[in-house]
Amino acid sequence: MKQAYRVLAFLVAAGVALQAAAISYGMFGLIKWVERGGTLDQSTELTPALGGYTGFSWHATVGIFVLPVISLLFLISSFFAKVPGGIKWALIVFGVTVLQVALGLFSHSVAGIGWLHGINALVLFGTAVMAGMRVSRAVANKVVSDEPVAAPAP
Predict the structure, then answer these.
(1) Residue 25: which residues within 8 A CB-CB, separation 6 or more?
(2) SS3 sequence of 54-72
(3) Does residue 100 contact residue 62 with C-beta atoms inside 8 Å?
(4) What is the mean pLDDT of residues 100-126?
(5) What is the spatial distance between Cα 64 and Cα 86, in angstroms, rounded to a whole number?
(6) Smallest Cα–Cα separation from 84: which of 5, 148, 4, 12?
(7) Could you tell me if residue 90 is inside a domain?
(8) Domain ranges, residue 119
(9) How many CA atoms lie within 13 A of 80 on its CB side?
(10) pLDDT-based confidence at 44, cuts 50/70/90?
(11) pTM, full prediction
(12) What total number of domains does the chain contain?
C-alpha cells in the first residue's frame, strides 16, 4: 500500500505539471490564433477551431475532475499505507487541491485571484512531491531499524 500512496502522490505532482503545460499551450495557441486574424470577444464560440482550445480544455478537465479524484484517492490510501506522517501530508495535499480548484473557479470572477492560483499550483506540486518522497525515507529507515544489532564487543 506504500507504493500506491507514493504513486498517487507523484500522480498529483505530474497532474500539476500537465496543468501548467496545458494552460501554457492554451495561451500561446490563443495568441497565435489572434496574430493570424482571429478575434476574441463575447461572441467567440469555444470550439476546437479556437487557437489553444485544447490546452484550455485539458486544463479545465484535469483541474476540476482528474486531480481532485487523484487527491481523494491519495487521502484514502494514506489511512492504509502506514507511512509516518502520511495522513497529515495527504490531508495537506487534498486541502491544497481543494483550494486550487476554488482559486481557479473564483479567478473567472476576479482575475487577480489568478496570481494566487498560479502560486498555489507550485505549493501543490511541492507538497505532493514531499509526500511521495516520504515513502522512500520511511522504507529506508525501516530497513535500517530492522537490521539486527551486533552484540557489543566484550
Answers:
(1) 52, 54, 55, 58
(2) HHHHHHHHHHHHHHHHHHH
(3) no
(4) 97
(5) 24
(6) 5
(7) yes
(8) 2-38+46-142
(9) 8
(10) confident
(11) 0.85
(12) 1
